[in-house]
């Protein structure tokens, strides 16, 4: 069995510039963790932008950011401090 030592899985924080979005749903379709879905609401251009449905599952793979033709979504690495509140339980 492979041990990864202290390596923790990365977590992403997703940022959506909803008014840049053209509603193509590439980010929704290609996200490997099914983190996104298209919103019911319309943006300023009349498209349905994505919304985050389960950010905790985001792997920070940045595929959504890479694939978006409109630069309407990007992901930053969630810092450990932000994770603090829901971090591991202590002995
Ligand atoms: S970074 Fe990866 S896992 Fe996170 S929302 Fe984008 S495609 Fe999904
Ligand atoms: S890939 Fe970009 S343009 Fe397409 S739905 Fe996602 S955010 Fe909108």
Give your account of this protein's structure.
The protein has about 90 residues and is of the alpha+beta class. It has one domain: Alpha-Beta Plaits. It is built from three helices and four strands, in the order E-H-E-E-H-E-H. It has helices spanning about 25-30, 65, 80-85, and strands spanning about 10-15, 35-40, 50, 75. It has a two-stranded antiparallel ribbon. The protein has a two-stranded antiparallel sheet with strand order 2-3. The structure holds iron/sulfur cluster (2 copies). The site of one iron/sulfur cluster has 15 residues, from strand 1 and helix 2.
Write the layout of secondary structure elements.
Layout: E1 12-16, H1 26-30, E2 36-38, E3 50-52, H2 63-67, E4 73-77, H3 80-83
Antiparallel strand pairs: 1-4, 2-3
The structure holds iron/sulfur cluster (2 copies).
Biggest β-sheet: strands ordered side by side in the sheet? 1-4
The number of helices is 3
Derived from helix and strand composition plus strand pairing, the structural class reads alpha+beta
Query: Taking Cα atoms only, what radius of gyration do you get, to the nearest Å?
Result: 15 Å
Bulk shape = elongated
CATH fold-level label: Alpha-Beta Plaits
Q: What's the number of domains?
A: 1
Order of helices and strands: EHEEHEH
Quaternary class: single chain
Q: Termini, distance in Å?
A: 25 Å
Essential attributes:
91 residues; alpha+beta; Alpha-Beta Plaits; two-stranded antiparallel ribbon; two-stranded antiparallel sheet; 3 helices; disordered C terminus; binds iron/sulfur cluster
